[in-house]
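Long-time lurker, first post. I've been practising inverse folding by hand and with some scripts of my own, and I keep getting stuck on stretches where the structure tokens seem ambiguous. Below is the full token string for one chain I'm working on. Before anyone asks, I'm not after the true native sequence, just a reasonable design that respects the backbone. If someone could post their per-position residues I'd love to compare against what I wrote down in my notebook.
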């Protein structure tokens, strides 16, 4: 599996990417952890959707391509199989992909 990071900072994991054209196509999961802050509460949002056979990213928008880590592959496979993310998965996402949204 590959970890693809875009020039705008989004990171995707893909198990089936076609990089032979201007646009990468395949199955992918967007890795993120959004911390949503309001006046009354704080909540976290995690990935839960596998995008199948879609145009993932333009080749010109790719910043880096690496092999996915074991943790990232586990997250991809859980989402692919509709399995809920574990506390450890969420901890990994918080540590590596956290962004804050104040509302």
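-- Answer (accepted) --
I ran through it position by position. Result:
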């Amino acid at each position: 599996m590959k970890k693809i990071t875009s020039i705008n900072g989004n990171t995707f994991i893909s198990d089936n990417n076609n990089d032979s054209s201007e646009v990468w196509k395949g199955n992918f999961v967007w890795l993120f952890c959004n911390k949503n802050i309001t006046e009354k509460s704080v909540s976290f949002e995690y990935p839960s959707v596998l995008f199948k056979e879609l145009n993932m990213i333009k080749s010109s928008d790719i910043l880096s391509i690496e092999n996915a880590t074991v943790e990232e592959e586990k997250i991809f496979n859980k989402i692919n199989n509709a399995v809920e993310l574990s506390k450890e998965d969420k901890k990994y996402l918080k540590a590596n992909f956290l962004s804050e949204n104040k509302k």
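A couple of notes from the structure itself: The chain has a mean pLDDT of 88. The longest helix spans residues 70-80. Happy to go over any region you disagree with.
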